[in-house]
């Protein structure tokens, strides 16, 4: 047996920060429990999926083997769990995941701003913004904290606009649209929310953008089907035909890299 | 032509071994029959979209 004991330590450090840990084995729960107790190891507190045959789908040739999967379901690290190399990707992956949805964590705030923090974490950023103003009127002493929170909120909004623009530069226009719509809703009635709306309006008027978005929609569908278990050869065939349709656009390269990834 | 036939047959019969997936590849969905410590956030990767997941393949032997 290998790796479970050291994994406990990694689990205890990173699970509270938001990494989800799953261990998979082809053994039955009985065999796992028996095997661990024979070795004097307590059953760890993270989930252990039993009777799984998923190793072959991941192309695992020897165990233990580990993967880090990002918020989009993409593998970002693969290797031997004993190497510890995955820890280096956790931080950046968590940051990206934090910007993927509408929610935003302002970090430590004074007790008076705890409601604002709750709203932020729930993705109600416009409401949080309004609540800040309300609190400030009642309690001018909060000025410094409110200003700093609002600045950070705007900073997060700017970062998310950049993420949307990065999608566009890869030709992923539909992904960018969906993402920025969601963010604009979360940031509604804030200055950065306005900027998001303006950006979206500009995109929707742009003919080139719109045609790339409809091609990107097809890519989204093919990748989703592939993830659900569509045959590799069929996915590649569909991607190749899509690539022909996107020739001369940045999406062609993105489709090509997906083809080579699926081909393995 | 005849000489090529065995090679072709071999190629067709060769198992379609999946290469080990690496960074950039979409993670395939997992199927688990039973859990020890059932995950609170979902029992498949689709449910965990939005989260960073550490997935380990392992055995007690």
Describe the structure.
- The complex is a heterodimer of chains A (264) and B (61).
- Chain A has 264 residues and is mainly alpha-helical.
- Chain A has helices at 4-14, 29-38, 87-100, 114-121, 125-138, 143-169, 173-186, 191-205, 207-227, 232-246, 250-263; strands at 19-24, 48-50, 65-69, 75-79.
- In chain A, 62% of the residues lie in helices and 7% in strands.
- The longest helix of chain A is centred in the middle third of the chain and has 27 residues, at 143-169.
- With 61 residues, chain B is α+β, with helices and mostly antiparallel strands.
- In chain B, 16% of the residues lie in helices and 15% in strands.
- Chain B is built from 1 helix and 2 strands; from the N terminus they run αββ.
- At the A-B interface, helix 1, strand 1, helix 2, strand 2 and strand 3 of A face strand 1 and strand 2 of B.
- Strand 2 (48-50) of chain A pairs antiparallel with strand 1 of chain B, so a sheet runs across the interface.
